[in-house]
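Hello,

Our lab assistant flagged a job as stuck in the queue for most of the afternoon. It eventually completed. Since we weren't sure the result was trustworthy after the delay, we are filing this so someone can double-check. Below is the sequence as submitted and the structure that was eventually returned. Let us know if re-running is recommended.
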Amino acid sequence: MIWKGVRMEGVSCVILAGGKGRRMGGEKAFVPLRGLPLFEHVYRVCGDLFEEIIIVTNDPDRFTSYRAIILKDLIPGIGPLGGLYTGLLTAKNEYCFCAACDLPFLRKELIRYLLSQREGYDAVIPSAPDGLHPLLAVYSKGALREMMRVIEDGKPKVSNVLSRLKVRLCTVEEMAPYDPSLISLFNVNDIEDLRRAEELMKGEDIRWNP
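-- returned structure --
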């Protein structure tokens, strides 16, 4: 794939913003990080890359000021899989780049690389020393059937879906040219992570290894 222009054509973007943030003391998407809501760090990167952005949330009214399709989770109460299913089902394009709202250091070149690997696969997932990262990944609509099957089976975990799909795992070595420290994979789960993110953002040279 040749990367031309600013935005990726023929691909939608799904941002999962349904986390309740119990460990953060408030709704995770709107926890402030260096003057911006945590969600907005993700939105600004994705807004530069994609024409169609879909935000899946339990509180649509809080996102009406953003250029995006705002959706309420079609299958609430089952975690991120419900959000993935909702976004992928609604997207106009066959493939979606999907990201959680707690990834403040996303690198555009890594996103483009993951998308370049999508042909012939149901999903493209980063694989790092700390495990797989299915909430910073590419999915095709071909994954919808298996998503619904695991939901109906009462085992609504993303990991249960991946075992049923044709998955392209991207290794640290191949991702390194696009994100040498894999900072894109840093997610903010709790107050300690938030403090670490603030420290990382203070310097121009952001370095982190999972």
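-- support follow-up --
The delay was a queue issue, not a problem with the job. The result is valid. The mean pLDDT is 90. The two ends are 28 Å apart (CA to CA).
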